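Friendly challenge for the regulars: who can give me the structure tokens for this chain first? No prize, just bragging rights.
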Amino acid sequence: MAKAFNDRTTIDLFANEKSRGRPKTNPLSRKDQLLVNKRNQIKRDKAKGLKRVELKVDVELFNTLNELADTYQLSRAQVIETLLVTQINSLSKLDGELCPELLELENA
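First reply, four minutes later:
Bragging rights claimed.
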């Protein structure tokens, strides 16, 4: 049976590995730590009912979002979510549901 390098559950497989210098506080490499942390973050977000949304914005808008986040001591994601929820609520209050003609979006 081959051992995976990032499998540290059976410590006896690694008893003969000696390293110089300060002992590691985590047996995984930095790359493997990042993978584990990302997997755990996705699980936490899923448990909270959150979904990932990515978007590309102009540099000026990005800077404005950062300034708002700094001003209100929020994360950029929280600022974007607040703006979106506020806009959607204001649009849906007009007629009880979203009206596509009020959005005035251009087809990109």
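DSSP finds four helices and no strands in the chain. The chain has a mean pLDDT of 81. Your move, everyone else.
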